[in-house]
Hints:
Blueprint: H1 15-18, E1 22-24, E2 30-39, E3 46-53, E4 62-67, E5 72-74, E6 79-81, H2 86-90, H3 103-112
Parallel strand pairs: 1-6
Antiparallel strand pairs: 1-2, 2-3, 3-4, 5-6
Amino acid sequence: MTPHTATSASHMVSSADVNGTAVYSPKGEHLGHVDHLMIDKESGVIAYAVMAFGGFLGLAEDHHPIPWKKLSYDQTLGGFVTDITREQLEGAPQRGENWREDRTWGAATYNYYGVPPYWI
């Protein structure tokens, strides 16, 4: 699935079009895809792209929230590029059941990926 930004002049894209978009390393290695987005209800900021990676044909996929700011859209690839490595994804901070409300986990995750938390 390709976001509308790849086929039109629009600067806007529907979250429905982002879901399923491929994620690549800077060298063009396919790392996974965006499963869904997490949006802060109060600020309206996209906090995380939950990335699916690993597994085979959707089975045993792992999902990790990564800071939205770690992705940039590449029209040539028709997907997002990140400097996050597969090893970093596999070693990401483990999230608890209430990770969506856990600012300690969120701060640790943003720090792990080297970007300031979106709420600061």
